[in-house]
Amino acid sequence: MPRTVNTIRIIPRLDIKGPNLVKGIHMEGLRVLGKPERFARYYYENGADELIYVDVVASLYGRNSLLDIIEKTSRETFIPLTVGGGLRTIDDIKAVLRAGADKVSLNTAAIQRPELIQEVSRKFGSSTILISIEAIKMPDGSYEAYTDNGREKTGMNVFDWALRAVELGAGEIMITSIDREGTGKGFDLELTKKISESVPIPVIAHGGAGTIAHIYDVINEGKADSVSIASIIHYNYVKECEIEDDFSGEGNIEYLRNRSSFSRIHDTTIMKTKEYLTQHGLECRYPLAGVDNA
Amino acid sequence: MGWSVDTHWPEWTMLESGKPEVAIIDYGMGNLFSIKRACESVGLKVCTTFQKQEILSAKAVILPGVGAFGDAIDTLRKLDLIQVLQEVALSTKPFIGICLGMHLLMDESQEFGSHKGLGIIKGCVIRFDNFQEVSGKRLKVPHVGWNRIYKKNNSNRDLWSNSILEGLTDGEFMYFVHSFYVKPDDPKLILSTSEYGNIELCSSLQYRNIIACQFHPERSGLRGLHIYRNLASIILARSNNFGGDK
């Protein structure tokens, strides 16, 4: 009986703007969903294998207001927390690690100065550094790396960049399809498969989950080692749980007022996702027997 | 950081003043904060330190660590902690190595050349074979994620009873992040094994007062916190038994 080759991780990704959890389509038209630390706690209790926080504004305006949220989250969740968005220097990284993050996710700063990857991996260890690659498919079928949530062109080929990042000491890669992100159309399987098969380190797929079957596909066909999901579970939490958060004036809360879900996304929970994956022969941390009576 | 107190488990509240003190070695490698919070959540009083006196006067010592073996040993040497830690190992107080902290306990490591370790546990540290293929898929290194820990059933007695793993089910999931793993010379020290690719590795071990795990119990959810709770019981029992040895 073959035992574990690789246990798939399901990693909720929480995009943060100011004090709020937000979600957008193609990273435009951000919707406010609630307080990130509440979502984080809920996902932790419901079987999330790790958490990822991304400050979606920091990279644009040089703002970094995450520390408080990281601190609160790391006090009540005991699973790995990765933090990204606007981290540029060793000091920025040290600050989020000190607040309670376990790993950092780098994109813009690493592309601008790749040696940063080497410095971070030397100082904090390879396993502390996750390189986030935002990919957009070009008309000729190639993939180009972007930064600032798909706004800034880099002219770099995604696969070349991934291999360079590995050489410099990256511990993991998160590949986001900007074309699919927030659309619910499914992951870009071709992109994920090519990345995952070309690098020796674990690859996290992100961008496009609309159904549980999409998650299965990106593992089975796309060869992803882990999957990061957002809308598909956020919408479920917003729908199922009464959100009584006080929004402090940032972002657009219209979404919450009409509670209209985005039609392509069939919301689900982490538990249901893991149940499905397990039934379809994939290994993940499920069932979570005994978790409640530890 | 200093001392901090936080109580979540009701059974510890009556021990407010007599909480065992745990020294977490702060040598700049890895996330001490998650370990600190896990300790606090089971009612342990924590001090993150690299001061000899604080380490020697603590009721238990945790050696954490993420990063490179060579750098870690160099840093411990610069901080003049090698002898201190070897002294702790020879005492009766619980001494816990986590991840790289586990590797450092060994004789030597093959990580980027050969490095001498603390020599507390006989054995070495070796790397995963990056080019191994399992069911047509290349084995990813580092090994990142949740994996099962198994009881090593080579004796009649239950190895996990009275250990940090007491009360856990055989095959429990824990969180791992590593490219290297330890190979103790004496297999009897192995408390649990785990499998990655077709390698069976030692995922935790115990030798007298020395306990070490490859996985991160502080990042392994409630079952991981259960390990910290066991640890707190062990520390309390030890400090009650040996506390008055003046």
Features:
heterodimer, A: 294 residues, alpha/beta, TIM Barrel, 35% helix, globular, B: 246 residues, Rossmann fold, 10-stranded mixed sheet, 4-stranded mixed sheet, 27% helix, disordered N terminus
What does it look like?
The complex is a heterodimer of chains A (294) and B (246). Chain A has 294 residues and is an alpha/beta fold. Chain A has 12 helices and 12 strands. Chain A has an 8-stranded parallel β-barrel with strand order 1-4-5-6-7-10-11-12, surrounded by 7 helices. In chain A, helix 1 runs parallel beside helix 3 and helix 9 (212-220) crosses helix 12 (270-279). The longest helix of chain A has 11 residues, at 158-168. In chain B, a hairpin with a 2-residue loop joins strand 15 and strand 16 (210-213). Chain B is built from 7 helices and 16 strands. Chain B has 246 residues and is an alpha/beta fold. Chain B has a single domain, classed as Rossmann fold (3-Layer(aba) Sandwich), CATH 3.40.50. The longest helix of chain B has 22 residues, at 221-242. Chains A and B meet through helix 4 and helix 6 of A and helix 2, strand 10, strand 11, strand 12 and helix 7 of B.
Please outline the major beta sheet of chain A. Answer: 8 strands, parallel, barrel
How much helicity do the residues of chain A have? 25-40%
Question: What is the name of the CATH superfamily of chain B?
Answer: Class I glutamine amidotransferase (GATase) domain
**Pair with the biggest interface:** A-B, 45 and 46 residues
Tell me the number of helical segments of chain B per DSSP (H or I, 4 or more residues long). 7
- Output the number of helix runs of chain A: 12
Oligomer: heterodimer
Using the coordinates above, name the CATH class of chain B.
Alpha Beta
Radius of gyration of chain B: 17 Å
- Class per helix and strand makeup of chain B: alpha/beta
Which structural class fits the helix and strand makeup of chain A?
A: alpha/beta
Which architecture of chain A does the CATH hierarchy give at level 2? Alpha-Beta Barrel
What is the name of the CATH class of chain A? Alpha Beta
Q: Can you list the strand order of the major beta sheet of chain A?
A: 1-4-5-6-7-10-11-12
Rounded to the nearest angstrom, the distance between the terminal CA atoms of chain B is 29 Å
| Beta content of chain A | 15-25%
Total separate domains of chain A:
1
Q: Give helix % range of chain B.
A: 25-40%
Spans of chain A of 5+ residues with little confidence (pLDDT < 50)? 289-294
What's the pLDDT, averaged over the residues of chain A?
86
Mean pLDDT of chain B comes to 86
